[in-house]
Amino acid sequence: ELVSRLRWKLRALREERELVLGEARECAGRGEELAAAVRDVCKPNEFERYVTFIGDLEKVVSLLLCLSSRLARVQNAMRRIDGNTDAEERQSLDERHKLLSRQREDAKDLKENLDRRERVVAGILAKYLTEQQLRGYRHFVQLKTSLLIEQKDLEEQIKFFEEQLENLEKSIP
């Protein structure tokens, strides 16, 4: 019964992931339309700032999500440490935790820098776009970010349930 429920949950998560991927494709299409409108009205260097910002947005958000996920896995492994855990494994986990914590702090600094750049880009776009187009830009940036987060969350859940299912199936004779 548990195997059946895990398989059902995995199916539901995969279906949800497909819906989110569809939304991400639609968002990318809107992004292309927005980029074309920005290219038409902005100076080339301003357009380049916009394009660079949008590309960096995805990279920085993905980096933060990845590092946070890896850090959470290391923290979970550290919570499972007991008296039987050898010193080498304990030290390895501690070093990975410190490294990932530093990397995540560096990524947070990148995100703060990206937020400042977003304000600069929004200021540039405010000179050229209508209020409706500017709202569309802001919505696009928020949607792109939230879809990246949702995709990562679903991937993590799917991975977790796949591991649970695999472990359960191995334990059943």
From TrEMBL:
Protein name listed in UniProt: SHRM1 protein
An example Gene Ontology CC term for this record: adherens junction
Family from the record: Belongs to the shroom family.
One Pfam family linked to the record: ASD2
Stretches assigned to the ASD2 domain: 1-173
Keywords for the protein's UniProt record, in alphabetical order: Coiled coil, Cytoplasm, Cytoskeleton
InterPro entries cross-referenced by the UniProt entry: ASD2_dom (IPR014799), Shroom_fam (IPR027685)
Extent of the signal sequence: none
Main location: cytoplasm
Protein origin, superkingdom: Eukaryota
Chain segments annotated as coiled-coil in the UniProt record: 90-120, 144-171
Any GO BP: actin filament organization
GO terms of molecular function: actin filament binding
Subcellular location: Cytoplasm, Cytoskeleton
